[in-house]
Write a structure and sequence with these properties.
It contains six helices and seven strands, in the order αββαβαββαββαα. A hairpin with a 4-residue loop joins strand 4 (56-61) and strand 5. It has helices at 3-10, 28-31, 43-51, 72-78, 101-114, 119-126; strands spanning 16-18, 21-26, 38-42, 56-61, 66-71, 80-83, 88-93. The strands form two sheets. It has a four-stranded mixed beta sheet. Strands 3-7-6 form a three-stranded antiparallel beta sheet. The longest helix has 14 residues, at 101-114. By secondary structure, the protein is of the alpha+beta class. The chain has one domain.
Length: 131
């Protein structure tokens, strides 16, 4: 039986889930993207974390002794996809990470509040579908 595959489905293979937070310890000199300063997350891990009810990702840089927090909505809205040969990943630029949980939640709420109405709804109103 492929127990590694089962672990991927159950929980992130890297880091750990605690409540609504996926915590991951990294070393910036090895793990931070350079060309576009960003942290990248394995897409399978991110999907597994979301299935476990995760709302926030906490990346702790063990070298810089820095904490980086992001709401899952922020990662989905502002993140970018990449594959550097280690599997599909989702990157989030360093400027979109926050130093605290509260700040990350605020940014996620602000992004959700500023999202435009879906185009289909707006179009139906202009075409008389809203009457």
């Amino acid at each position: 039986m492929d127990t590694e595959g089962l672990r991927k489905l159950d929980a992130p293979a890297h880091g750990r889930v605690s409540g609504d937070v996926w915590r991951k310890a990294v070393r910036g000199s090895l793990h931070m993207l350079r060309a576009r300063q960003a942290w990248a997350l394995d897409l399978a891990d991110l999907d597994a974390a979301k299935r476990k009810g995760v709302r926030l990702v906490h990346v702790q840089d063990l070298e810089a002794l820095a904490h980086h927090w992001a709401d899952v909505q922020t990662i989905e809205a502002r993140g970018f996809d990449l594959d550097r040969g280690y599997g599909r990943q989702r990157g989030l630029a360093l400027v979109d990470w926050r130093p605290t949980r509260a700040a990350a939640l605020r940014l996620g709420r602000d992004l959700a509040a500023s999202e435009p109405e879906p185009a289909g709804v707006q179009t139906s109103l202009w075409q008389g579908g809203g009457r």
